[in-house]
């Protein structure tokens, strides 16, 4: 131990396997996923209570699967509503683009798209955290400095209203500390900027009584003097997001001016303004998401204009990717792995390479929708980006694969694809049956050739008794897939030789 780390350890107030900076949706979800793997976490949060200003209003079925995994889906069902879709119209109300969401249950076992109120979600996550024996949450604690040694990482914190500071130690640190991340500054300040940067005013209102004529669709009023978005939120909440003009700021908008801006849709007799705020919509991705034992996730790692409702979703995707990898590094002794350092680096570096490619596709698509909103122009380029079918002016949701990462050496076409969640023959959804763990889905003819003891610890689902899973394999044209805990496919196989190779390789990763 160096003299410096001796000093730190003697001051250390508390320790955990993983220290998480920030208890927004990204940090909370990470802690709850790590709990599923038996990993202890300490969350350090600057604020005393959850951020009251509503920001996110949408998440999709992939994210609901993560919420299902951490055990909050049932509580969420009470406060969310199904979202039928989004329409883009020009100043004459002519439909430019329709992005409908299927009304039924999607292949992921949930509706494709939900509307929610971010403080409701954060409250449900906090309640779950406070019931967990493996998660400590320290609010009113601002992280001011981040250091790492060979075996651990240390956080220096300032407590609200107190002179003294505290020091915490963990094996890994994940900065889920939002757009102005202090952890990011210990990794890299370099970002890729995609160039979209605008100020928008957000006005949240509470209707005094129902106003069905506003409709359930999200409406994008494009190309107006002031482009505007209308969102049908749960209960009596409704939102308008309105583009600002150069020089305008929040103080420009008196109450009268706010009502004028939304006067086409609602009046003070019908609603109260719950809050208004100006946000800067940015489009950036950090160049580095890891430095040794330090990581960033969520808004700390990337920012997107909210036109697809994917900012928070991307943070949840980040931590679903990272949590099981961190857990493996914390849990496994791996005496048999000759070069443990190289194993850990391959595993942990794959977090950034897999996630950056995925989140970049969402950001680029959101920017192309932003261009449509600003100009009414449905150019070929922006349409292609957004998955738009020119004949029907209908848009489909994108489902980006992972970037190159784990399993790349298999050169398998299905690696990095998302796997659906059918209901199994027992009546339960796939993820409820197998949990946040790897699972082998295999056809009977291949299963009977497998050795009695698989080289990896994983659940096995034989399609002989699971016709829905057989259909999933048919769609992928394979006879077996190995799913990672985050439900992406590590690799697929059509014969026993390929399956053996896949399982051997997976021995390093799952
Ligand atoms: C108008 C608007 C609409 C949006 N709509 C959507 C949408 O529909 N769907 C969607 O998916 N996303 C949407 N987003 C984005 C979404 O709100 C964010 O992506 C999400 O809140 C990011 O979560 P996070 O946990 O990464 O960061 P944050 O929510 O910012 O949480 C970071 C936490 O870290 C704490 N913290 C910061 N620094 C420190 C420190 N030094 N020490 C200790 N704690 C610290 C903060 O107090 C905070 O609690 C929208 C955003 C806006 C502004």
Distance linking N and C termini: 32 Å
- Principal-axis shape equals globular
Q: Which ions and ligands are bound to the chains?
A: flavin-adenine dinucleotide
Strand content: 25-35%
Number of domains: 3
What can you tell me about this protein's structure?
By secondary structure, this protein is an alpha+beta fold. It has three domains: 303 residues, FAD/NAD(P)-binding domain; 84 residues, D-Amino Acid Oxidase, Chain A, domain 2 (2-Layer Sandwich); 99 residues, Glutaredoxin, CATH 3.40.30. The chain is 29% helix and 26% strand. The chain is built from 13 helices and 27 strands. The strands form six sheets. Strands 1, 2, 8, 9, 10, 11, 19 and 20 form an eight-stranded mixed sheet that branches. The protein has a seven-stranded mixed sheet with strand order 6-5-14-15-16-13-17, with no helix packed on it. A hairpin with a 4-residue loop joins β9 and β10. α2 packs parallel to α7 and α7 runs antiparallel to α8. The N terminus is likely disordered. Flavin-adenine dinucleotide binds next to α2, β3, β9 and α7.
């Amino acid at each position: 131990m160096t003299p410096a780390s001796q000093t730190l350890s003697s001051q250390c107030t508390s320790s955990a396997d993983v220290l998480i900076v920030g208890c927004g949706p990204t940090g909370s979800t990470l802690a709850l996923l790590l709990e599923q793997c038996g990993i202890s976490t300490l969350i350090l949060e600057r604020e005393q209570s959850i951020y009251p200003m509503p920001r996110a209003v949408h998440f999709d079925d992939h994210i609901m699967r993560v919420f299902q995994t951490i055990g909050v889906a049932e509580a969420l069902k009470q406060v969310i509503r199904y979202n039928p879709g989004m329409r883009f119209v020009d100043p004459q109300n002519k439909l430019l683009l329709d992005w409908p969401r299927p009304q039924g249950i999607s292949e992921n076992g949930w509706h494709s798209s939900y509307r929610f109120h971010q403080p409701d979600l954060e409250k449900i996550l906090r309640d779950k955290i406070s019931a967990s024996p493996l998660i400590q949450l320290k609010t009113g604690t601002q992280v001011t400095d981040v250091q790492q040694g060979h075996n651990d990482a240390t956080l220096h914190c300032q407590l609200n209203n107190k002179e003294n500071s505290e020091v915490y130690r963990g094996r890994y640190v994940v900065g889920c500390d939002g757009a102005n991340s202090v952890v990011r500054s210990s990794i890299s300040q370099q970002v890729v900027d995609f160039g979209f940067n605008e100020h928008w005013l957000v006005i949240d209102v509470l209707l005094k009584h129902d106003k069905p004529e506003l409709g359930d669709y999200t409406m994008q009023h494009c190309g107006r003097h002031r482009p505007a978005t209308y969102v049908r939120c749960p209960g009596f909440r409704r939102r308008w997001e309105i583009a600002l003009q150069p020089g305008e700021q929040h103080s420009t908008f008196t109450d009268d001016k706010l009502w004028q801006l939304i006067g086409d849709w609602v009046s003070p007799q019908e609603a109260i303004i719950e809050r208004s705020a100006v946000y800067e919509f940015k489009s950036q991705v950090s160049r580095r998401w890891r430095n040794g034992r330090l990581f960033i996730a969520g808004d700390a790692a990337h920012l997107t204009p909210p036109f697809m409702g994917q900012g928070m979703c991307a943070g949840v995707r980040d931590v679903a990717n990272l949590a099981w990898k961190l857990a493996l590094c914390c849990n496994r002794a791996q005496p048999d792995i000759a070069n443990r350092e190289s194993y850990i680096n391959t595993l942990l570096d794959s977090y950034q390479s897999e996630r950056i490619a995925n989140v970049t596709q969402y950001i680029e698509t959101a920017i192309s929708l932003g261009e449509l909103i600003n100009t009414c122009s449905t150019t070929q380029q922006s349409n292609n980006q957004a998955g738009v079918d020119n004949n029907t002016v209908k848009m489909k949701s994108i489902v980006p694969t992972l970037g190159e990462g784990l399993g790349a050496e298999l050169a398998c076409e299905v690696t990095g694809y998302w796997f659906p969640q059918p209901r199994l023959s027992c009546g339960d959804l796939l993820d409820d049956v197998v949990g946040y763990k790897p699972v082998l889905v295999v056809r009977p003819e291949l299963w009977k050739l497998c050795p009695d003891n698989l080289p990896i610890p994983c659940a096995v689902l034989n399609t002989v008794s699971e016709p829905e899973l057989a259909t999933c394999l048919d769609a992928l044209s394979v006879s077996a897939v190995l799913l990672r805990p985050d439900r992406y496919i590590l690799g697929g196989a059509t014969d026993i030789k390929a399956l053996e190779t896949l399982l051997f390789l997976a021995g390093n990763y799952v």
